[in-house]
Structures are given as structure tokens and as C-alpha cells.
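lol ok so funny story. i was supposed to be doing the assay writeup but got distracted and ended up predicting the structure for this chain instead. priorities right. anyway since i did it might as well share w the group, maybe its usefull for someone
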Amino acid sequence: MGAASWTLFAPFAAGTSQRPFVLAQLGQSLDGRIATPSGDSKYINLCPALDHLHRVRARVDAVVVGIGTVLADDPLLTVRRVAGASPARVVIDPSGRMPSTARCLAEDGARRVVVCRPGAAVPPGVEAVRMEDEAAFCPLAIVARLGRLGFARILVEGGARTVSAFIDAGAIDRLHLMVAPMLMGSGRNGLDLRPIVALNEAMRPATTSYRLGGGEVLFDCDLRRRAEGEPAP
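and the output, tada:
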């Protein structure tokens, strides 16, 4: 992507362990679907989008998913399609449902972290970040705890419920939304944010679009800055 890559990844440098830079990523169809009603999601986005996702993984310190994504998809969460080291893998698993056979727990030199309640089971060799109560599972609190582990650049990769919760909590700095030229007509929605009553309550982030190839488009949404030129209410 040349110069576009520099523009896309330059904001990552602002992250520190005291104030991590947090990026959320989501891939969807033109009509906003991330899976069929049965849960089939491989692959809505094809090679250009997957290459971009792996470039992002190679530039962050930690990639975060919810336990639902692990149970449904058993992802590796490693860097394979581009050069670069794999980030730490973090799973939000309050009740200790993580199977010891999960592929993201494979020992490959990357840190493996589970965010859970006190007393929840954690597989051997995995770091546990134990949150004391339900309020502590607020996305902002999770980001702060991950920062204290030394993670300055964090990717929230999935699933849709986790990404939506982090956006609703104001914990996301940037959203990379990758749209594939596909119409599914039904299935699971990509984002499910808190309801609004009037359109002027909607988020309208400053956004730049990039062609990834194969008809796929990346929308780089700055959730800390509103779009210029909005119509007056």
C-alpha cells in the first residue's frame, strides 16, 4: 500500500503503556454481515483484507478476542501472511471456559493472557489477569490492566460483541472496517452498539477509505475525531 501504509500505521506510535493506543478491526459484507445465520464466516473478506489484518497484528503488542470467538472459530491470532513477530494473545474469559486445546494457547514464544474472574481456571503456562468484580470488566479497565502489562498498542479483533462493547465504552481510538463486495441478505450484524433516538446522536468519525484490491475497501475511522463538514442540527 506504499504511502498509504505509513498513514494508516503512523497513529500506532502514540501508544504508551500508560495510555495504550487501541485499534478495533472488523470485516463484513456490503450489507453489514459478518456471518450467515448458521455462523459460517470463512471467508467473507479475502486475501487483500487478510493481508492487512496480518500487517496490523505485526504492528501491535497484543491482540484481544472474547471467549466466544475462541469457542466458535478457534483462531491462531498469529502473524503468518506478512513478515513480523506475532503479538501477545489475550482472551477475555470471565468464567474460565477456555479449552486447554485452543490454538491461540499454543506455545510459540508469544505471551498468552486470559482476563478472568478470581478463581476461574486458567490453562498451565498462561498469564491470568484477574478482575475483582463485574465492574472491573469494563473495557477501559481491561485496557488499563493490559497497559500495566507493558502493552502499548492493542488490537481488539473480535468478535462483534467484544468490538461493540469496546466502542460503546469509548475504549477504541481507531476502527479499521474492511468491507467485502458481497451481499449476504441475512445473518449476523457486524456492530451492535447502544441504541440512539436521533441521528445527531450517531457517531460520525473522521474517516479515510483505502482500496485493498479485489473490490475490498478499508475504512479507517478515527473515533477520537468527528468528521468535518457535518450538517448543522
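The chain has one domain: 20-189. The mean pLDDT is 92.
back to the writeup now i swear
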